[in-house]
Every structure is written in C-alpha cells, then in structure tokens.
Amino acid sequence: MSNKKNRKHKTLFVVLGVLFLSVLVVAGAFGYKLYSDTQQEEALNKEVALLSKLDLTKDNYNRKLKTSGDYGKVEKTIKDYLVDFQKSFKAFEEKAQDEKITSILSYENYKKDGPEFKESIAYLDSTSDELEKLFDELISKCEEKNIMAAIEKEKLDQYYVDLYKKLLVGDMSSDLEDAKKSLEDSKKMMLDLLKIEKEVLVFLKDNKSKWELDEDQIVFSNQKSLEKYNEYLEKLNKLG
Asked: What's the alpha-carbon Rg for the chain, to the nearest Å?
C-alpha cells in the first residue's frame, strides 16, 4: 500500500513538474516575443526616421528591410508607398520642367514651326493630357484614404495598421491637405498656361496672313491683331 502511495506521489510530482516547466516555457516565449517586438518596433521607428531625411528628388527609398514578420510588412508597405510616390513625382518633374513649354512662343519656334504650328499644337495637347494625369496621381497619393489603403490590403491586426498610420501619416493630416490644395492650384495654373499657349498658336495660325517675322520679332500688319496677341501674352504674365 505504501509503495502504491509513493508511486502516486511521484507521478503527481512529475505531472506538476511538467506543468511548471510548460508554464516557464510559455512565459519565456511570451517574454521573448515582447522583447523581440520592442526591438522590431524600435528598428522600424529608426528606419522611418532615416527615410524622412532623404531627398525625394534623388535618394533611394527602396532600402533593405530592417524588420520581419508583421513589422516587416509595415516597413515594406511604407517603403513601397514612398518609392511609388517618388516615381510619380519624378515623372511629373521631368514633364513640368520641359523647356519646350516655355519656349514654344519664342521667335525660334515661330520660325521653325509656323505659320501652321502643327507640331507645337500637338505637343501642347499631349503635354496637357500627360500633366493632368501626373497631377491627379500625385494628388491622389496625398489623400489619407489612399495612403491607408496600401496597408489595409495586407490584412494585418489593427495594431500594425495604426502603427503604419502613425509612422507614415502621423500628425501630418493637415499638411497632406495643404499639399493636395497646392497641387490642385498648380495643376490649374499649369493647364491654363498650356491652354493659353495653344490659343496663341491657333490665333497665329488662323491669322497667318496678318503677321510675319522680322529681325527676331513678330510684326503684325494691323493694330487689332497686335492687340489681340498682346492680350494673350498679358494673360500668360498674370499666371506667372
């Protein structure tokens, strides 16, 4: 009877020992996860801080990931978004800084493409369409709902969605609205400029018998045509 009792006690101690070790393992794993998560979040915060110091016009946002797991997904989504924004910005910048936009009403272009201005008018039409599309892309990328849509596709826990928002949007909601408004104003000004430039060329085309080029300038044969031409130029000056 005594041996049976001892065996029962030993069995009980073994079971309790296994349970105790299991609790220690779980507690250790939980503690490690907390430590690991803290490290990952610190690494992510540090990396985003570095990204914020980069130059949008020339630096590379497509850097090696410093985190993994769900933190890595947040980091990758942030970097993918910035790379995509940079790509749109560079395409816009290249098109908006095309010297042809500002030289299309020059004596040299009048001489080269006038009096029909077929090439110049086609250029203004295509440039207007391209710039409108590029402006709309940038404006869309400044909207918080589209910034958040990028992380929502990842189907992460709300904690990571909030972390993404904190890191990429943060307290910049009003700044994003200001940027969007600035882009919308610039879009209107740029498209108005191209529209007026086209109107000038169409006017010159329709009145080709009333002007000529002489000594590096355009000369009109009547006052009315000159005044109309100057009206267009005045509109352009007001845009500037």
From this structure: 33
**CA dist., res. 240 & res. 229, Å (int):** 17
Which stretch of DSSP H or E encloses residue 49?
helix 2-51
pLDDT of 56 = 76
The DSSP result for 76-93, as a single string, is: HHHHHHHHHHHHHHHHHH
| Contact call for residues 197 and 203 (beta carbons, < 8 A) | no
In the DSSP assignment, the letter for residue 236 is H
CA 8 – CA 89 distance, rounded (Å): 76
Average pLDDT rounded to a whole number, residues 70-75: 95
Q: Is the pLDDT of residue 29 over 50?
A: no
| Nearest Cα to Cα of residue 168 among 234, 82, 97 | 82
- Check residue 176 and give its pLDDT: 78
Q: If you ran DSSP here, which 8-state letter would residue 104 be given?
A: T
Q: Is the pTM of this model over 0.85?
A: no
Q: Poorest-confidence range of 8-12, 67-71, 133-137, 162-166?
A: 8-12
CB neighbourhood size of 190 (10 A): 21
Please report the DSSP string for 168-201 in residue order: HTTT-HHHHHHHHHHHHHHHHHHHHHHHHHHHHH
Q: What is the largest CA-CA distance in the chain?
A: 130
